[in-house]
Specification:
5-stranded antiparallel β-sheet; Trigger factor, domain 2; 4-stranded antiparallel β-sheet; alpha+beta; 48% helix; Chitinase A, domain 3; Alpha-Beta Plaits
């Protein structure tokens, strides 16, 4: 069998396969014999149909199609074995099947083309001595104070208010309805769907609702009805309402203020489910946690910037079959996260929505897969091995947490890969020159760059 290979994009190999004349004749004879044994034709007993009658009744096109289905499949498998190709998933026939039927003649050489996915290839470029900026997140005591006050607010008792108007921090119970405002500044008649509610609990805190909505309730007193206009943001999720002025008519039915608990040992014990007996002990634990979170945030910034550079400097050719598997893994992870949050995944992962969800998950899947392959290749080149003690600890922990049956070999493989990738990232960081900048700096620089690009694009259009 003559096989010609061609490297294709997306980690594919193109194959041009020439099948010898004797094989095409044998395949034809076998197919006709099989049809003669299995086809039922009126006037003939099963398996007793004469060859010429069979060909005449079924037609040469149908018979050749039957021959080629098996011939192509068998020839492709033989070609992959012959060429020692590590194929992933199913093949794709790139020749026109109709043209193949028309050109096929038993007893003559037969040529067709197909492509197969092969394992991803990684071409390493620069990965040592990287130079980049990363954000340094420092422990901020004020964030701890904000967290403590938030917990006090969550544990607060709601007390009715009758002698003053509504103010920030209150909880207002109100009826409201919204209508569009026309160009003349007048309300239109129809209530906008989704902008009407009765006995709705409005937590008067900044950022809780559309800008301007909470502010509309400030100063309102019990049983008061008030109109106020809110301009919905241009980027609002409901495109029909985005950028529009909406006039709300609201009636305040109840008003409550939060009575905060005392910040003392009793509060600390209650809020921590009796884990800590004193306020000082609880705060000390929180401080340790906040400091650790700041270190993790800094580490994540370093790794993200490093991964971005690695993706730029190193080439990865990803097979579609692997990308699709990673997309499935991304969506499975999202489903588990939604389930933990109490969200009904059946409302999100519907039959109609799945194709769109898969499309949206593709960039993340390609990035995750590419990063993993680059790091694995670097580990191989640099001979980075997993730490045995860390491996054993993770393995025992994983076994204790998994409740159903599992494949221990696959678990060990996954843990090994995870530890090696972590070790490789640590090794790369040691090899890099990092300039630490305050948190938020890189995001601001990226936004500024994006705005500059947009302005330049607009100028070019003009």
């Amino acid at each position: 069998m003559k096989v010609t290979q061609e490297k294709l994009p997306a980690s594919q190999v193109g194959l041009e396969i020439e099948v010898s004349a004797d094989v095409t004749q044998k395949a034809y004879n076998n197919a006709v014999s099989k049809l003669a044994r299995t086809v039922n034709l009126p006037g003939f007993r099963k398996g007793k149909v004469p060859r010429q009658i069979l060909i005449q009744r079924l037609g040469s096109g149908r018979i050749k199609a039957t021959v080629l289905e098996d011939l192509i499949d068998d020839s492709l498998k033989a070609a992959i074995d012959q060429e020692k190709i590590e194929a992933l998933g199913n093949y794709k026939l790139t020749s026109s099947f109709d043209e193949l039927i028309a050109n096929y003649k038993p007893g003559e050489p037969f040529t067709f083309k197909a492509s197969v996915d092969v394992p991803a290839s990684v071409t390493l470029g620069t990965y040592k001595g990287l130079e980049f900026k990363a954000e340094q997140t420092d422990y901020d005591p004020s964030k701890l104070d904000e967290f403590v006050e938030q917990k006090r607010s969550e544990a607060a008792t709601l007390v009715p208010v009758e002698d003053r108007g509504a103010q920030m921090g209150d909880v207002a119970i109100a009826d409201y309805e919204g209508r569009y405002v026309n160009d003349a500044g007048e309300e239109e008649g129809e209530i906008i769907p989704g902008t009407q509610a009765e006995d709705f609990s409005v937590e008067m805190e900044e950022g809780k609702f559309v800008p301007g909505f909470i502010e509309g309730f400030i100063g309102m007193k019990l049983e008061e009805t008030k109109k106020f206009v809110v301009t919905f943001p241009e980027e609002y999720g409901n495109e029909e309402m985005a950028g529009k002025d909406v006039s709300f008519t609201a009636t305040l039915k109840e008003l409550k203020e939060r009575e905060l608990p005392e910040l003392d040992d009793e509060f600390a014990s209650d809020i921590s489910n009796e884990e800590f007996e004193t306020l000082d002990a609880w705060k000390a634990s929180l401080e340790e946690q906040f400091k650790k979170n700041a270190e993790i945030t800094t580490k994540n910034s370093v790794r993200q910037q490093m991964l971005d550079l690695l993706a730029q400097n190193n080439e990865v050719d990803l097979p579609e079959v692997s990308v699709n598997e990673e997309i499935t893994a991304v969506l499975s992870q999202q489903m588990m996260e939604f389930s933990r949050m109490g969200i009904d995944i059946n409302q999100i992962f519907t039959k109609d929505m799945v194709p769109k969800l898969r499309e949206n998950a593709r960039p993340e899947a390609e990035q995750r897969l590419g990063n993993s392959l680059i790091l694995t290749e670097i580990a191989k080149v640099e001979k980075i091995e997993p730490d045995e003690e860390k491996f054993n600890e993770r393995l025992e922990q994983a076994k204790s947490e998994i409740e159903q049956d599992f494949d221990e070999d696959r678990l060990k493989e996954a843990i090994t890969e995870e530890i090696v990738i972590e070790a490789t990232l640590d090794w790369l960081q040691e090899q890099s020159k990092i300039e630490f900048v305050p948190a938020g700096t890189l995001e601001a620089e990226a936004e500024e760059t994006e705005e500059t690009i947009e302005v330049e694009a607009e100028e070019e259009e003009e």
